[in-house]
Amino acid sequence: MSTLSPTRDPEQTRARILEAAEALFVEQGFSAVRLSELARSAGVTKSLIHHHFGSKEKLWEAVKDRAFERYFTAQMSMLEEAGEPDVALLRASVEAYFHFLRDNPGVVRLFAWAHLEGDDHYSELDAELVGAGAEWVRQAQRRGVLRADVNPTNVIAVFVMACTQWFETKSHCQQWPGMGSDAAFLEDFLTIFLEGVTPRG
User: Fold this and answer.
1) Are residues 144 and 82 located together in one domain of the fold?
2) Fewer CB within 10 Å, N side or C side of the chain?
3) What does R_g of the chain's alpha carbons equal in angstroms?
4) Cβ–Cβ < 8 Å for 33, 113
5) To the nearest whole percent, how much of the chain has pLDDT over 90?
6) How many Cβ atoms are within 10 Å of 80's Cβ, its own excluded?
């Protein structure tokens, strides 16, 4: 249970609820967490959770958005500051996502729980970032930097899925004969992926 004292600051209260919810959702998943348990952990009443978030489902979405926001902000800045589309930026984007997941195992667990529980919520942050990334790929295709016979959104999906899956299943996959480290996997994946999206001949 939280040892924090009650506060009348709405922003502090909201932050405490989010922190407690993220810890419980990471550990147990969305379905297993009860609102009463969450209220005890945050040191608030259930009515305060409803006041700030409306429902457990809305709180779950807020937790995921908060966890993803760090990567979203950094990646959008990278895209906005980039000059002409080139392969180097695509490589940097893959590396940024991979390192974000490596450095934030709690986010990986949130993603895994969402996938296991059939969560089909499509957040505005996710939609905006995928849309911006796909548009960048489209521009690179028009310039002839990337092959034009593949769906730009699928280019984004391939590296997102591969990186996410690596961290969700790494403890199992690292037992396979010859499997290497995070760095070795990333380097091999980049070789395969970038050669696959580069124009032929």
Assistant:
1) yes
2) C
3) 20
4) no
5) 73
6) 8
100 and 33, same domain (yes or no)? no
Q: Specify the higher pLDDT residue, 150 or 120.
A: 150
How far is residue 164's CA from residue 39's CA, in Å, rounded to a whole number?
Answer: 31
48 and 9 Cβ atoms separated by less than 8 Å: no
Q: What span, in angstroms and rounded, lies between the C-alpha atoms of 40 and 174?
A: 38
Does pLDDT of 118 surpass 90?
Answer: no
Is residue 129 a part of any domain in this protein?
yes
The answer to whether residue 60 is domain-embedded is no
CA distance to 29, 127, 189, per residue, from 150 (Å):
35, 20, 18
Each residue's pLDDT tens digit, 153-187: 999 999 999 999 999 999 888 889 988 899 999 99
In a domain, 152, yes or no: yes
pLDDT at residue number 122:
66
Q: What CA–CA distance (Å, rounded) separates 144 from 138?
A: 10
Is 59 contained in some domain? no
Q: Which residue has the tokens 């590296």?
A: 159
93: number of Cβ within 10 Å: 20
